[in-house]
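For practice. Supply one:
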Amino acid sequence: MSFKKGKAPLYAKGYSEASVYDFRTGELLYWTNKLKTGNTSTSMNDGAVEGGFGNKLLINLPDSTRLTGSFEAADFSLEARGLQMGSVVKYNAKTLIRRKITAETNTLTLPDDATPAPAYGQPSDAASYFCYVGDDGVNYGVDPATKKIQGFTAQVGKEYCVQFYTNILNAEQLAIPANFSPTVAYLVIKTPMFSENGANAKNSTLAGYLYGFYPRVQFIGDAGMNGSQTEASSTSVNFVALAYDEQTDGVCTDCENGSSVYGWLTYVPCTDDEFSSVKALAIVGGVVVVKAQETAQVPVFYVMQNDELVTPKYSDLTFAVAEDGGSYASVGENTGIIQGKSQGKTTVTVKVTSKPDLTATANVSVEAA
């Protein structure tokens, strides 16, 4: 593979989206497009090997490679904080509420639609739950069974502001455990990529998107919040990539290098032409030899801009035998499978169906059965 000098330069600026998934189920755990800052960085121990006269550097054998990252979102998120604690957001949370109650007797009673709950840290089997009347700060307590407020004498007909704990169905709650167990998940970060004005298919500076795919990351960092009176509290997420072993079947070699990865960076151009980076079609292996009554696959590849060979989806191609060669062989129009008929020579033309100017010709030799 080679680098082409004429390739248009790309410029990256800012994270645009971050998505966190459960790597077992694929369910989305967190997403934001309100990112303010972000970065990923790598580090390693060089593992310098030195020797000889003057203790020269002979080679570096790196070890302890690490990939870490962080991003800050302008919005506030309980879910993101939960990732760093190993805690999950739940509904029907308990909170303090205020209700206006008019005294019908000297004892205040919560209305039928109010269900008192114990305060955080208060036993659920307590004889009374925390309850306050007015602004005097006294905990009079409320009987969870009768809903009657204890130790307070009311004036009949007077309206009081009563504060007590109860569960609210749509209120969200995130437990802060004493021992964090940071979530391990699958992370995707999206970055817009730009080029010179008009240098891409959309005639815009936006050229495409760079995706960072990290199959295993652990979220480790500060899950707190900023209580500034002049700045909104943002959401900071810090993560470290964990080694992921690709599932490779059938590998049996002593010299196979470790297949562990931390992630992949994938650039996807903003164009409807999937074949914009294909330089040519190539037939590999020379003449395609097939016996009569047998079959063979046309060995065609895409030649990319860096001269890399990529196996195509054969359904994207159209195959045709030369008009004067139909008696020797036939070919599947969208499969590229040659069927030998009788001894002789012919050619098969291959085209990209949606881009007919990308074409190649395979020489075919049919041998006797």
User: Anything to note?
Assistant: Residues 30 and 80 are 6 Å apart (CA to CA). The two ends are 40 Å apart (CA to CA). Helices lie at 78-85. The chain has a mean pLDDT of 91.
